Amino acid sequence: MKTLSLLLLVSLVSLLAEAGTAPQYSVSNIPDPPSKFSTKQIDGLTFLPDGRLVVCLPSGEIFFYETESQTWTLFAEGLHNPLGVIALSNTELVVAHRPELTRVSDTDGDGKADDYEVMTDQFGMSGNYHEFHFTPVRDEEGNYFFALGTGSSGDGVRTIVRGEFDPRGRPGRMHASTPLRGCIVKLTKDGETIPWSYGHRTPNGLGFDLEGNLFVTDNQGDWVGSSKLFHVKKGRFYGHVASLAWKEGFEGTPLDTPAEELARLRTRACVVFPHGSMANSPTQVLAISEKANFGPFKGQLLVGEMNKPRIMRVMLEEIGGELQGACIPFIDGGGLRTGANRMDWGADGSLYVGHTRHTWAGNEGITRVEWNGEIPFEVQNVNLTSTGFRFTFTKPVDVGSAKDVKNWPFKRYYYRYHKSYGSPQMDLTPVAVESVEISEDGKVVEVHLEELAAWHIHEVTIGKVTSRDGEALGNRLVAYTLNRLLDNTPPEPLQVGGTPSKPKPSIKPVPVKNSRGTVYEAETAKVKGPSLDTKYAGFSGTGYIDFGPGNQSVTWTVKAAKAGDHEIVIRYALGDGAGRPLRLSVNDREIGTLPFPSTGGWPDWKDLSSPVKLKAGENTIRLEALDRSGANIDHLQLVE
Amino acid sequence: MGRGKGKDPEWQSRMGSCPFCANASEEMRRFLVLRNPLVRERSYPLRTMKNRTIGLLGLFLFGGSPGQGAPDEDLLEQGKILYNSAGSCVACHMEDGKGQPGSIPPLAGSDWLKGDSGAQRTIALTLRGLAGPIKVNGKRYYSAMPPQLLFDDKKMAAIISYVNNTWGNKERVVTEDEVAKARATLPQDVYTPDAILKTFPFDKKYRGKNGTFEPTFDDLLTNVTEPIVYRTFMPGASPAAFAVALPGNQYFCWDAGECRLRYVWTKGGFIRGNQVHWSSNGKPVAEFNGVPYYRARSSLLKPEDYEVLAATNRREPFYDTTQASDFPFEIKGVSERPRFRGYRLVDGFPEFRISVGEIEIRESIRTTSDGLGVVRSFSVSPATDLTLRLTPTDEARITSSAGRVSEDGTLRVARADSAAFEVTIVEKNPATPATP
User: For residues A463 and A407, is the Cβ–Cβ distance under 8 A?
Assistant: First the structure.
């Protein structure tokens, strides 16, 4: 645990400030499905009308689970990375897998699927691994919606692609060179396949709210400054450029279009999940419906997250004709695993969660979250007022702590809209609280701010506010995506530029504890992929290595005098605002991911330290790129 | 070897055919002649050097232990002949020493040959055999090496010395005495990977990428008794592909992106290592061994080998499926593109459904009763006259219940036959009879 906390310092610092799952919720584990391929990653999860659990695995297997008897049965196999499932009946499923939306049926009643009917394959596949086919959902009329991921610059296209190849969609970090990649697609109940919305990057998760509004998440990356939740409407463009190649009437190459022009085309997210503190890779959207037995939050949305053991709660309201609102961690740790990818309500109203990773941050297996029927002390709702925000709590608050303006440290910022990966928090500004008012019943807290700025995220980590009975607040980090004001909303700024805020003190690299270690230069280590560079001064040795995206690594062979705990210190520079984590392995065994937060600029070298267990004598220490680039790495020091 | 040579160039894959080898061996011979004096000349001063690091580096660069002398040209020539003789090493490890991806490990550049224990390990596993899952240079293999009983000590020494000094390998020569001693003293059992590595462990630097591994479901897939249907990325097909294993060790790739059978193969087993695909981010393209004996012609797919066709990192594709206008079915008055409609499992066998306009075509593929090929059963509804374009090849004999398949592969199916007809593709001259 100690190792882990140091390794994941950045996320843990913020976690400690906000954790976590209220004591009224408990998490338990469901046995793993018996995949013959030994995979336990869950990529689709729902329930049959008869109450059995359905899961899809990356191996293409679909299992049913009898919750009472705890028995698994194989229903279908041979699907291509299914990433979502709908149960039409006890014998009929609709599965989103890479090549098609497919109806998988057991027509002879032997309990095993025997018919795989293509419902639609009228979309492209370049063969790029990142072109995932996410979560089908079905509306009340019987129309289906599904989400098509873009291809990654981590790889190109295959020799034969399915559907028309359009080179206009090919350039860029994430690409859409075959039809409807980066789109939400509708399959009408009459069988017609039509593009529904554009501008999605990695839309891993569609879901309806109880009013029938359709939502989709997106993951931080190019054109997505921080991860988002969109209210999906027909014909709209949500920001990622590649799919514009498939939008009727769009001329030219999407990537060559000026950012200002694209910014005018885009529809804002109804909720932005601040990167690092709230979510890095949000997943499915699930409404807290009538089926749920999950506390006083009916009608709100749950959104899963890959990088943290977290499921968030989203509270929306309609302002100026569009939805916007707040997100807050909800189930956060407390036994939940990372990689909460798919969720649904069990027959008893508890929440079943399927976990996955696909080589990224995450986990595997199935967990179940149950509510014990007692009211947790949580923020129940957040609403915009003309002067600030109204926080409704599930229980009366302690007046003394809630009235203290110091417990409401608001700040505001926005994320830049640009083609680079992620964005720093721009024009980060503290927002002073003028006064706090508490309702008579003690449940409603009106926070009056000195200023409300439209088109900015307003974030607060509520301080030590307790309930009247002294109960600690379950979750404290609240981020409200304030697009529109109640009145007189100024025109939407493009936000393609601005001043990046300085990195927060909490994400500064760990200081070097002991600088007398043995230095192993990166440029003399075994380097696979990264190029040797000397562009930015301040490096030791003869240069540093520059990590790019893809399958890149650096491996040092270090000598330890004795076996046991050691500290390594890595000197690096990273000019991009967003961190670029690298995977750390010692002696070919992966031990975790080092965060590598921004150092503030490419010429600014900083140290990051990590404890490692070494054996006596020679050891290998490897840093590997994840799905994207890494920092410039100068050297590694081994502190004995 | 030799399959595909001088035949339809489209099917000439580097895997398994050998136009490359004939020239390479002459080059290799010259290389060895040139190399010998070099080793002697450079290795003498090395022995007098005090600096151990440079000494070791020298050994690494120039190979051989200075005390052992250089490989003898005649010895290597004899080893080469034996290696390439019928039914010998070449049958599996191939003339270029590269083995066969997924099933037979390479000898060229193999870490298993390297280091202090390398030669002894090679002698041991050649004499006694090795069975079980092994990792070679980071890749997994799961097939047995039988004990080599045909060669006496001298021949064995020649073969191993040849392997140790060919295709860029620079290991030491092996003597007749060493082989004799090993033959007399080694335990009689076929080695397991654990056993051989316990006796002859790798030098430290080779351990990471070499050794044994826990076999997975795919590794154990041989002689299936029920069909296996996978959707996965397949080389030489659009990304919407099927890989199907039939009982009787016949395997095929069916491409849903173009609604057509792509290729059929039998040797070398079903696709391997697809665990990687399913447990990873989904990038890897499936690998399979050997060369298909039937590969459907496609005017757009140029004669690339499967390594090229598996590439994922291209800027542009060779072509997209909307350009593929040569759907193998021609039906008069029907110009619509074929569309893949799905499949039904009948006794576990997939029956693919394609629609072309108002017409539905179903195709199911099973192993022939003699186990030497496949039967493609078609049904067209409503019945209609049609033409099916098959691909003539020297590797396979193509016949049909609906009439004669012409020289150029054209099969004309009369309306009356179209409701149910078969096309049988049987491999000609199978090198090893398939086991039904």
Answer: yes
